[in-house]
């Protein structure tokens, strides 16, 4: 059977262009409120809704924060999912080229729905941190102890067997698609949800670190994006994952030293 790399090299330019456009739009939506906040317009309109200064949230605040996290997850996780989506489209196009575009869209949408589910938990965590008075209006942890706890949790998780298992699924698009294959539109959505679930298992702890560097810190968001993408697509992604775990544990020790 044709190697994954060969299939990816013959992928649809339109599909690749669509994915790149979606990534650019998502990053544009992430950059806009972040840049607005950094220019001093903290209390302007939607930005204030997405980053409420206190834990007294209205339903509108909850919806805005959830939307913010959903867009952030799309911007940060879609780059690493590009090989999987392109390969899925190629496999569908071999048998049913007339539905390949639609099903690749369904697959990608379901993948993002899975991350929207994660965004619900992230929204609740942001509210909890604000209620505990350990999160600044810029989305940065103000407690070195809490920061150390998140860094240690993420660092240790990077070294676990479950992380390795989830990362293997993300790093092997052909293996995942062959083992999880389902026909039809419903199958495309189920596979997208399943891939998203494996991806959450792989990256949830790293995404929580958004609170350490700041949810509105574009450089920090870009760094995390590069990290999770490298884990999935770089030749030595598993080694990168373990090395990152060691660095994060060291970072936790640094924050403990700050606290004592």
From TrEMBL:
Which residues span the membrane?
A: 12-35, 55-88, 109-129, 141-159, 198-220, 240-259
Q: Which domain of life is it from?
A: Bacteria
> Keywords in UniProt for this one?
Membrane, Transmembrane, Transmembrane helix
The protein here is known as: DUF2182 domain-containing protein
């Amino acid at each position: 059977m044709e190697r994954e790399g060969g299939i990816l090299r013959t992928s649809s330019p339109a599909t690749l262009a669509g994915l790149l456009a979606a990534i650019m739009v998502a990053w544009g939506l992430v950059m806009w409120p972040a840049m607005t906040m950094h220019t001093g317009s903290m209390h302007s309109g939607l930005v204030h809704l997405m980053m409420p200064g206190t834990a007294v949230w209205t339903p509108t605040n909850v919806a805005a924060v959830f939307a913010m996290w959903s867009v952030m997850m799309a911007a940060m996780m879609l780059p690493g999912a590009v090989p999987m989506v392109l390969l899925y489209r190629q496999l569908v196009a071999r048998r049913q080229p007339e539905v390949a575009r639609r099903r690749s869209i369904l697959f990608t949408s379901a993948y993002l729905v899975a991350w929207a589910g994660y965004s619900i938990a992230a929204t609740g965590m942001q509210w909890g941190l604000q209620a505990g008075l350990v999160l600044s209006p810029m989305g940065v942890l103000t407690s070195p102890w809490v920061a150390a706890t998140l860094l240690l949790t993420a660092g240790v998780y990077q070294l676990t067997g479950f992380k390795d298992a989830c990362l293997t699924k993300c790093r092997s698009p052909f293996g995942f698609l062959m083992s999880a294959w389902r026909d039809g539109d419903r199958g495309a959505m189920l596979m997208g949800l399943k891939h998203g679930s494996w991806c959450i298992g792989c990256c949830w702890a790293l995404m929580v670190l958004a609170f350490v560097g700041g949810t509105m810190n574009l450089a920090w968001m870009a760094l995390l994006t590069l990290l999770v993408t490298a884990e999935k697509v770089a030749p030595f992604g598993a080694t990168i994952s373990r090395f990152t775990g060691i660095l994060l544990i060291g970072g936790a020790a640094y924050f403990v030293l700050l606290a004592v």
